[in-house]
Please model this.
Amino acid sequence: MTINEAIIARHAVRTYTDKKLDRDILDKLTECIAECNKDSGLHIQLVSGEPKAFDGFMAHYGKFSGVENYIALIGKKGPDLEEKCGYYGEKLAIYAQSLGLNSCWVAMSYSKVKGAYEIDAGEKLLMVISLGYGKTQGVQHKSKPAEQVSNISADSPEWFGKGVEYALLAPTAMNQQKFYLTLNGDRVAAKAGSGFYTKTDLGIVKYHFEVGAGTENFRWE
Model:
């Protein structure tokens, strides 16, 4: 499965089978995480075979079950932490989808487990992404019209339209889709609206837009 195919196929999945992640899958995920950390300066970590984080009241309330693997999004505290975690976290979620896994972004419906990951001085755990083999493949979320999230028009280049299309496939908190993409020549501005986790959402959206539009076609403002 290509990355483009994975973006189209991926939907939030909260219930997982008891099938274990084999060593090859774990190695590929670990390698991709290392590359993301090198590029971003984040301290993202893969946690596998750990059921406690999703065994509490909040996880059950959030209808999670069978979660024993997750990606911990950790990094240095700062104004860009949320957007970075969104961008690189989604890159990892889509890569996991291309490997045949399912996933779900989780902001609150989990418990912090001491010793499951390392948080260095000045760092924080922002959120996690559950991973595994889903009992279902999830369902497509409803999307706003492209005109509500961008300045797209009949004269817009094809790559911009494709980028907006992929941006609308991005998971956002409560499916709020509070972002706006503005095309100006070969430059694109991406702005987050107000609301919960919109900075993280913006990072996710920017990754999707890049895959759809092609980074060779534009520059971020």
Summary: The domain at 3-132 is CATH 3.40.109.10 (NADH Oxidase). Residues 23-40 form the longest helix (18 residues).
